[in-house]
Amino acid sequence: MAFPPVRARRLDRIDLLRAAAMLWMTVYHFCFDLDHFGLIHENFARDPFWTWQRTAIVSGFLFTAGLSQAVALSQGQDWPRFWKRWAQVAGAALLVTAGSALMFPKSFIYFGVLHGIAVMLIVMRLTAGWGVWLWPAGALAIAAKFIAPTVIAAMPVLELLNAPGWNALGFISRLPVTEDYVPLLPWLGVMWWGVAAGQWALRNRPHWLGSMDAPGAGFRRGLVVMGRWSLSYYLLHQPVLMGLVTGWVWWRGP
After folding, report:
1. Average pLDDT in the 86-92 region?
2. Which residues contact 27 (CB under 8 A, 6 or more apart)?
3. Which of 77, 94, 147, 186 lies at a C-alpha separation of 20 to 30 Å from 88?
């Protein structure tokens, strides 16, 4: 599938969208940390106020990841460059697993957002040529989340899909005990839609994705830079937040 030639540079509105998701994530995680230290009392696992926020934040990350993949492919990204970036994401995912195992040994993260993105990036690379079929493929992936419990209840042999390892697919009838869980279903559908939207925009409304010029100045520049260093920010923000809250608890005393 051919797209208008694009220089191998980033488009700033994609970075702005990613930065918005990152800021929202930071507020969400700050509140989570306050709850963890007993400074507030919220149910992040069940309260719709928090669960819907998590859904929106993860959707934002995966949709913008799909947009970025569409742009990268339009710029002719080769496999060596792809694998270099993939290795960074996969390595960061392993760091998240190690860090969460120290902090939450009974509910550590074994397939969170970075683990999911690492697998989905390979799927995107292999399926980006599906074109408009990415839209119904994404819809089916999202729908699978809602039909899985009924299918598994009707076919008990599929209970094995709830087991660790298999539950990375996301075709489950009960959620695992883990601090972050972003399986292929339904989230693969969101990234497929991101790729499809990016491909459509590159063909029809390339200006919607932003400019390749300098990111500007002031607050906007800060957001664009944040979006461009999203992986580093993701790895560092929670240790910093945890450190700040820990310091406050220590300073306040018993």
Report:
1. 97
2. none
3. 186
